[in-house]
Amino acid sequence: MITYDFAHIDGSIYSYLYTCIKNDILSGILKPGEKLPSKRTFANNNGISTITIQNAYDQLISEGYVYTIPKKGYYVANIEGMTRSIPNADINYDIRIPIRESFEYDLSSNGVNPDNFPFSVWTKLSREVMSNKKKELMEISPTSGIRLLREAIANHLKSFRGMLVDPNQIIIGAGTEYLYGYIVQLLGNDKIYAIENPGYRKLVSIYKQRNISCKYAYMDDSGITVEGLKESKADVAHICPNHHFPTGITMPASRRYEVLAWANAAEGRYIIEDDYDSEFRLEGKPIPTLFSIDECEKVIYMNTFSKSLSPTIRISYMVLPVHLANEFYKTMSFYSCTVSNFEQYTLAEFIERGYFEKHINRMRLYYSKQRRRIIDKLEASQLKEVCEIQENDAGLHFLVRLDTNQTDEFVISKFKEKGVKVEALSDYYLTEEKEKQHLFIVNYSNLNEEKIDDAIKIIEETVSGFRRC
Amino acid sequence: MITYDFAHIDGSIYSYLYTCIKNDILSGILKPGEKLPSKRTFANNNGISTITIQNAYDQLISEGYVYTIPKKGYYVANIEGMTRSIPNADINYDIRIPIRESFEYDLSSNGVNPDNFPFSVWTKLSREVMSNKKKELMEISPTSGIRLLREAIANHLKSFRGMLVDPNQIIIGAGTEYLYGYIVQLLGNDKIYAIENPGYRKLVSIYKQRNISCKYAYMDDSGITVEGLKESKADVAHICPNHHFPTGITMPASRRYEVLAWANAAEGRYIIEDDYDSEFRLEGKPIPTLFSIDECEKVIYMNTFSKSLSPTIRISYMVLPVHLANEFYKTMSFYSCTVSNFEQYTLAEFIERGYFEKHINRMRLYYSKQRRRIIDKLEASQLKEVCEIQENDAGLHFLVRLDTNQTDEFVISKFKEKGVKVEALSDYYLTEEKEKQHLFIVNYSNLNEEKIDDAIKIIEETVSGFRRC
Lengths: 469, 469
Hints:
2 copies of one chain form a homodimer. Chain A is 41% helix and 14% strand. By secondary structure, chain A is α/β, with parallel strands linked by helices.
């Protein structure tokens, strides 16, 4: 007969009894097949209620430690190997997380200075949304995103990009990477995807990680070449014709028509037009998109709020040609939209009420001042003698050619020693035969005014240091 | 010599000039190779500044309409086919979007009544986050999610599920569907994934859409069977052992060990444990997870805030065994986290400050009242004669067996006519040989008290209607 000490219980009797019996089963004191005392006997022997014992038995049954034979009673189940006890301490495993090195002066990546994010408007709008749209916030968003946001984006594309699109052509997702996943499912993962060389290495990772054939097509001064596309035998060209990263090349109209002609020359060919930073084309009118001049439904347009608002708000979108939009809704409507309703509605208000336009104008002015400052400082420094600035009046970066005999790796390592992170154009060549152009990328979105001044000084010292060696 | 009328310009001269020249090139008035007037001549002839002309020429050059030969001048580029003008009207294409039928009484899907979402706390916390964490909100989140949220989830798992996990084992993503994508990349898309039959049809769509081999393994009263897994030749079992949907089955401990033994019997076998509604197990202690009793790093645990908070806040997470966590960080750290920082920090505060626990307790009480009410109403109605309620004291639904000779399809169509959406268990059989059990799913998370009363009345009428036929 099993007995437990019920005198010093800290908590419910039911829970205590459950734990005692479970431990006895786990430790083998109670053997498989052994009959447990009836509820009545157990209750009488220990001076507790039968209900309490019933509850404990029920719990043990539901977890499989005990089984019952009707009219006969309760028996210990056969639990092999159930011997592990959970340690009562914090766990700290040896998980090796890649550490992002942090630099005092980061000229390599985009970032948003917290002073530049429109916190007060965003806070106001999100509060309004939570107060006025309770019902809508709880209603499941369509796969493509909430209608209001897609309408706001369609209006934005019309006034900013001269693009006329049906809001139903717009698909919203948590980042362009996520949308690439949709595209691959839509166009086929047996297709060959070509990206620009030099180009964005992350795209290679994204395609390769999904076991998708990813080729490189070489560029010339007008952007990706049709010869390169043909050599790659690509079905899908994934390109940034409006402002290529990192070269800054804007594809001229004649090349655009050549690339569209390439897409039209065979069935199943498509172009993914990544227009990631069109909002920050700092001078002149924006270039019409490939999507706008495409008459044959061959172009998928992509854009993101990562650059124009913040990379930490994960909202991107793509515009599908009509037949692909229909295909999307037919085959992929089972997916849930990956962006929270709360942020979809907040962003919709942000765009519709004109705050987005104001924000872009403010940021464009800010970045053009930053650009001017950094170029002026460069030209006023001794760097002028050994640097040639290559401007493409667009985006948040420019290129600098450095007159040196050192390798790009050496230059980068010297900067790194001084806390300056810089990337070389050669890092963006995806094939082995990198051109040694000594071209370095200067991305100024992360630096405020003070930092620009300091960075230029440090770069000047560093360069004069290794040029003397 | 080209001349334009500058007398009646509405807007900037630069923009007007740009448009005039572009249109003349597009319409063929200016021929490819034709020399454009020099800036000085053009300016003198029209009484405008050379800067304005320079700007217009620059824009035309950047778009490829014009090219320049240094020291010689500006020439018209060869633009073939550039004849399309953009219509100036709203676009409304024939895009067929699947329409979600709406029902007065929806017993089929989960939803959150806006009255139950903790709007005031959520608004307060998100405002605080936006005011106190400006810097952190702008810093790119690690792929796995921000550390604070992963710590909060680790603490929650410890106190609610008795699970001890390192926050670095936790990976946050915008919905479980997104995380399945990670898992497939981690375990391999050449593997065979088995799901429970009956089971969640959306999983089939998700795997098939990615061209992944997806098999069905049959269940018995203890959940998925090892025989079924073996027959399916699966490498990965995707299961809901803690509360299977829709049968409500909780896998007993003995079967858990059998399934773990299956996973241990061959290399590369894994179990995905979907614990989607454990917070709402309404009675008894929660069952320990498979993850907790797994000693061989074979179980990936998944959970979501869709059920416990709202499906419209897209935050889910998975807990990887240590070796898979290391593999994840090694091969997939290039991905961006799909959840916005704003909501990650808000949720972290919500959990850490105890609001989540309070919310769950409140909702558990609410749902158990709803459940009691609907069962009491059912048993007090004439439905009692023809219905048998199958309870599994868990989750947000139960099953009802209806005594009828009609097919499930007929029953469902009759309910539909009356505005009641009900699903049959047979709809969840993924193979052809459905069992005709006349079991229907009653999900009560969408109904408030009034609606419960009305729904029961309508169900009663409907059933008596077709039983009389």
